[in-house]
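Title: Prediction job returns without error message
Component: structure pipeline
Severity: low
Priority: P3
Assignee: unassigned

Description:
Job completed but the reporter wants confirmation the result is attached to the right record. Sequence as submitted:
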Amino acid sequence: VYHNGSIAIEQLQWLHDTLLAAEKANEYVHILSHIPSGDADCWNVWAREFNRIIERFNKMIGGIFTGHTHVDELNVHYTSNGHAVGISWNGGSLTTYSNKNPNYVVYEVEPKSMQVVDYETWIFDLEQANVQGMSGKPEWFKEYSFSEFTSDLSPAGLDSLLDRLAENPDLLQKYWLYKHTTARPRVENGCDRKCLSKTLCRLAVTVYDQRTRCKQLQAKLEANLPAVTTESPSTEASTTTQRPGTTEKPSGNTAAEIFGPHLVTIMIVLLFAAFPH
C-alpha cells in the first residue's frame, strides 16, 4: 500500500460511491472492516480520509464494526472541529490472542436507522474450560450489557460518556475490566495510571496521529486520579484493579536488588566474552 497508494484511493473511492448511492436511495448502512482506523496498524493517511468519509455520510451510517484487536472496545469518530459523528464497535474475538477469555457480542439496533442502542457481551472462563478438558463444555454467560455505562449510544452520548470516564477512574477501570473480558491474568496485573490513561485515549482516537480529544480527556483523568507522593509509594496501587477475592502479592527481590551495580558488570563481561577482539 505504501508503494502503490492508488490501491487505497480505489478502495476509499468505492466506499464513498457506495455510501453516496445508499444516501440517494434513502438507505441506512453498516460498515464492516477489519482493522479499526485509529489502530497503530492502520495507515494514518488512509484513516484520515476514511474519517472524512464517515463525517460526510454520518447521518446514514448505523454503525461501524471492526475486529483485529481481539478486545471488546469502541472508538468515537470526530470531525476536525471536534464533533462526535460516528462509532466503531469492536466485538472482541473467540480467539483469546493473549490473556483474555473468548467472547462474542450481541448488538441491539433500532429497526429503521440500524443505529446500535445497546449490546451485551458473552464470555466463558477459559481456565475453567481447560480444567474440564474434553469431558465438559464451556459455560457461556453474559458478562455485561453496555447500558450499564449509558443508555445513550449515539456519538454525542458516547462522547459525554468519555468525559464521565475521565472524571470517574473507578468507572474507567470497570470499562477496562470488561474490555479484557475479566480474564484472570489481566485482572491480577491490574491497570495503573498509565494503563488507565492509555485506555481512555484509545476510545477517542480514530486517526492514530490525531489526539486532540485524547489529550483533553487524559488531562481531565489526571486531575481526578489520586496524587502520587514520594512519601507514599503505595498510592499508585489505589488506582489498580484487582480481581475480587485476591490480595496483592508482595514483590520478591529482583536481580537488580540482589546484585546492585555488580549485575551490570557481569552483563558486560559476558558480552565481552561472547564477542572477543
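Comment from assignee: result matches the submitted record. Strands lie at 29-32, 61-66, 72-78, 84-91, 103-109, 116-123, 141-145.
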